[in-house]
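Supplementary Methods. Inverse-folding protocol.

Structures were first reduced to a discrete structure-token string of length 195. This string, shown here, constituted the complete conditioning input.
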């Protein structure tokens, strides 16, 4: 007698994770899957990105993290089964680090990237932090440094790929590589010795 069970189908999360893993990124952004943090949701996928990493995998330009979360119980703060959490940071020239609008600009780059890709979403939240530092004593030779860091989360609607693309654009924008700058040489590092 033939098996009457319906064929197995992939879970929504497994399908979405496969789609994200199949994505391609600009050549100067190295993206890899990393272990997802535990305890945030029943299902999670995490990516790490580095802008133009050196031979040791370190980037002097910028880095980021992307976490896709899925919980079929639809937690009330998410207002849906999916949540995206992202992080991006990049060094700044010290004179840019004192600009009072730099945090606002970082947030606008994320929202603009989501909008330009038609990445519908709701329930967004985040912080943009700028850090200034100066070495003293035995660290005086490291000079001054500045850094911008953006942490954000939102509940995506529709296909997930545009959300991943928007995150990748944000990481590159913070590193000084706007869309269309693939293959353009960067003179030196934006990272100051203290970055």
């Amino acid at each position: 007698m033939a098996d009457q069970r319906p064929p197995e189908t992939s879970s929504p999360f497994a399908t979405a994770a496969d789609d994200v893993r199949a994505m391609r990124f600009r050549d100067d952004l190295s993206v890899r899957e990393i272990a997802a943090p535990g305890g945030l949701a029943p299902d999670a996928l995490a990516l790490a990105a580095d802008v133009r990493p050196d031979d040791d995998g370190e980037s002097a330009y910028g880095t980021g993290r992307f976490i896709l979360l899925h919980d079929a119980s639809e937690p009330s703060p998410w207002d849906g089964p999916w949540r995206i959490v992202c992080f991006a940071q990049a060094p700044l020239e010290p004179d840019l680090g004192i600009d009072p609008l730099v945090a606002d600009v970082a947030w606008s780059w994320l929202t603009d990237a989501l909008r330009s890709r038609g990445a519908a979403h709701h329930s967004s939240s985040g912080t943009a932090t700028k850090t200034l530092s100066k070495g003293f004593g035995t660290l005086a030779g490291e000079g001054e440094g500045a850094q911008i860091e953006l942490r954000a989360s939102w509940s995506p609607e529709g296909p997930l790929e545009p959300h991943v693309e928007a995150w990748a654009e944000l990481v590159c924008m913070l590193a000084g590589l706007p869309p269309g700058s693939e293959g353009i040489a960067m003179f030196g590092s934006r990272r100051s010795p203290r970055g």
